[in-house]
Design brief:
With 217 residues, the chain is mainly α. Helices cover 39% and strands 8% of the residues. Helix 1 crosses helix 7 (165-174) and helix 7 (165-174) packs across helix 8.
Length: 217
């Protein structure tokens, strides 16, 4: 649960499908720490049974504009966003996050992890691809006691994987998600106000425009 519109929609889908949801967020040294406040708002609004924040420091490795002193790209065109892996990619982030989720799921006796990754709208992130998700699911069932004993087989759900941002927004609205509670900006100001120019802000604006709805409460 990052606090962005994808993870909020993903939680809405889990609720729709009848799951009792345990939301997991990460304070990993990201420059857009305001997203955690949004995550708490969304988790409460969508009825998560529990919401926890795991604290790890990925700044010790750096290598990303989100965790090091590297400028966040601004005002990029859609064509530029669709080329290569962006500097906002955090090395191994989704692998680390999923490992934490896998551990908590094993303790809870849960067999389902919902992940709001998306491989369509120019993300360029290698750990948002279906091949990655399938490989992690296989690994998880080899790495856990419940998987080895066959008592619980873990499944990673990615309901947004092949949807455009506009389709994600329309889905969320149909599920009652309040996007006014969410936060997407990679480089917010001191008061948490979105910059309006980073890739995430631009893709969010494009998604709402294509969905034909306004952004906000």
């Amino acid at each position: 649960m990052s606090g962005g519109l994808d993870s909020a929609t993903c939680l809405g889908v889990a609720r729709r499908d009848g799951f009792a949801s345990y939301a997991l967020s990460f304070d990993y040294g990201q420059r857009h720490i305001y997203e955690l406040e949004a995550a708490a708002r969304v988790a409460a609004a969508l009825g998560a049974v529990d919401h926890r924040v795991a604290r790890i420091d990925l700044r010790m490795f750096g290598g990303s504009a989100l965790t090091a002193g590297i400028d966040v790209p601004k005002h990029r065109s859609v064509a530029e966003m669709g080329t290569g892996i962006p500097i906002t990619y955090v090395p191994a982030r989704n692998t680390i996050f999923l490992s934490f989720a896998m551990a908590w799921a094993e303790v809870l006796g849960a067999s389902d992890i919902f992940l709001g990754v998306n491989a369509v709208d120019y993300s360029g992130y290698p750990d948002c691809r279906p091949e990655f998700v399938a490989a992690f699911e296989t690994m998880a069932n080899l790495a856990t006691r419940t998987g080895v004993e066959g008592t619980t087989l873990l499944r990673v759900h990615t309901p947004l994987l092949h949807l455009s941002k506009a389709e994600i927004i329309r889905l969320g609205l149909s599920l009652g998600v309040d996007y006014g509670l969410t936060h997407s900006c990679y480089d917010p100001g001191a008061n948490g106000r979105p910059c309006g120019a980073c890739d995430s802000c631009l893709l969010r604006a494009k998604g709402f425009e294509e969905a034909g709805v306004g952004d906000g409460p």
